[in-house]
Amino acid sequence: MHNKPLGPSQRCLKVGEEIRRMLVSILQNYFFEDPSITGRSITITEVQMSPDLKHAKIFFLPLGGASQQEILKVLQYESKKIRHILSKKVLLRAVPALSFRIDETFDAVDALNRSLSKVL
Predict the structure, then answer these.
(1) Other CB atoms closer than 10 Å to residue 95's CB: what's the count?
(2) N or C terminus of the chain: which is more exposed, having fewer CB within 10 Å?
(3) What's the pTM value of the predicted model, to 2 decimals?
């Protein structure tokens, strides 16, 4: 009986981390047409790759957490341009489709901490 790994493969993790690093560089150096995002500090918290490496879920948070929905719309709109720039920086056969998402992990952890502090 073969045991399947319970998480992403090492290759998915490595490719995801490489794409995360490249996206950080692109977002720091790329001039966006939309002024709501230009000059904003955006943290790419995680990139989750599909097993076939054709899709990437990119989790982000803007500094201070403000204007998350507005920034999400801009990143979705600019995703084709960002993917094109990424294709010149990453050595992959095919650059994955990019899907930007707001990282809600910190909010969930904060809510859990508040709940636990009430109980204790």
Answers:
(1) 20
(2) N
(3) 0.80
